[in-house]
């Protein structure tokens, strides 16, 4: 059963979701089909709970190469329940295999659903779902490439996503949150890419009955603000053209590095109006994003074709594919099945790890000495300073302090302190991740 909604008091923020308790490796879960699964170590955390490595239950522990993951959340939470509905209806292995065979595809970018159920531990109930294990997400690759992807790669990704979206759409769903952080490479094959995170997936045509266009002020701006569709900005539920519009924005960002409205993502009305203007004059939008020699004509044609799709229309998938394939031909390339994540000339360098000034100076001192004497002296200095004793070969004047700071202005006095302080620890969270905005 879905979690029951609780009435919130007027003016109160929605209650915070509970985080799942971490289960020990070896915990066995039984799905609704009576199949048992064994948990390995947790490898990630989402808004719903934890993600564990997993395998079919056996006497051996779950290894590092486990082929499955299990998502676990407290049963009172809702995100995984919403995602689970999509997987159960559209991601069963036999459905995916049948589609691939009928459309002559070697791969399809939808993770397979293997089971789900409820699990009790310590008097608490948890919901879980078993799907294929995947690898690195494309946002990390995007950052590593200096926030620009090669044109060939972008066109290849566009073709893969068209195949994936057509499958999802034919099974009555739209994704509504396409972006690099929701695209993951296969764990075993770096040339396969999968669309994940169906927490916002919407059934636009239940039992083949299309939803009508209707704006709801309470739903305005659902999705990830920089990519979400104009329909979503206006509060209308997502449709097939919404997914394709989002794909357009993704491809433009991957090619040029930045969308024009990214400077004001805290202002959703500004972002909405900027997107509306971009659709009114796609040629001008492309000129804003690219220099004349770098402007990809196929992306403009793709956007114009998507713009012509009505809210309830079935998109012309084959025509859209031909546009991207023509783009590959223009650059004398073809989709050879290999995804090459190589930096583009002129792209930003990957962000370097932050190093404190003190650590940087100390590192430079290490590099300047090769006879080992400096290392020995440093160790003695550290020991004496830790014990509170500081010795100097001769008496020097006390350094003056900078007014208002309480810090010495003498650079030599700063170097004396370096042996006792370490640089701040680096955070593990990736930079540049798009944030979700909801009404």
UniProtKB/TrEMBL annotation:
The keyword ATP-binding applies. SMART domains: S_TKc. Coiled coil: none annotated. Keywords: ATP-binding, Kinase, Nucleotide-binding, Serine/threonine-protein kinase, Transferase. Residues 37-328 form the Protein kinase domain. Residues 7-17, 391-401, 430-439 have a biased composition (Basic residues). It is an enzyme of class 2 (transferase). InterPro entries: CK1_Ser-Thr_kinase, Kinase-like_dom_sf, Prot_kinase_dom, Protein_kinase_ATP_BS, Ser/Thr_kinase_AS. It holds the Pfam family Pkinase. ATP binds at residue 71. It comes from the Eukaryota. Residues 1-27, 341-439 are annotated as: Disordered. Belongs to the protein kinase superfamily. PANTHER family: CASEIN KINASE-RELATED (PTHR11909). This is non-specific serine/threonine protein kinase. It comes from Zoarces viviparus (Viviparous eelpout). The lineage of its organism: Eukaryota, Metazoa, Chordata, Craniata, Vertebrata.
